[in-house]
Amino acid sequence: MFRVMPKGFQIEFENGYLVSIQFGLDNYCENRQGGRTYSQDAEVAVFWPEGSPAAIGAAAHYGFYPLDRYDDVKGWVPAADVATLLWRVGSLTGCVGGDGCGEVCDAHWVPTGDRMDEQSRDPLGLLEGLGGEEHTELEGGEDDGAVGVPA
Questions:
Q1: How does pLDDT run across 99-122, given as a tens digit for each residue?
Q2: Range of the domain at 64
């Protein structure tokens, strides 16, 4: 299913995963200042299937799949890599742990603590080999939950 959003669009696949592609004002993209209906890159987010244990468990942040260490989105992703991400997400089936439990389950994805660490970031490898920029901690060293600029 396709959904038009004010600054981009979303695609929900038959497997229940949803991908959001945004490229407008305040999104992590070339068109960050807004004013255009196009951009050379985009901000992407992936959501767990609605109702899955990973989406509703303590591990999830509003159903977001963890793409980035400091945020639930990945910014400045080129168009070709957005297409690859869409293909990868649309191809996901069954349990992420591979043991045949048939669910996207907390048993196979458990982050450590409130903020994501390297082990819990992108557990399915959806971004492997793709472009884009990781967000950095805010200047001053403390991560207060807000997002800084790309590294």
A1: 555 454 545 544 433 434 444 567
A2: 2-108
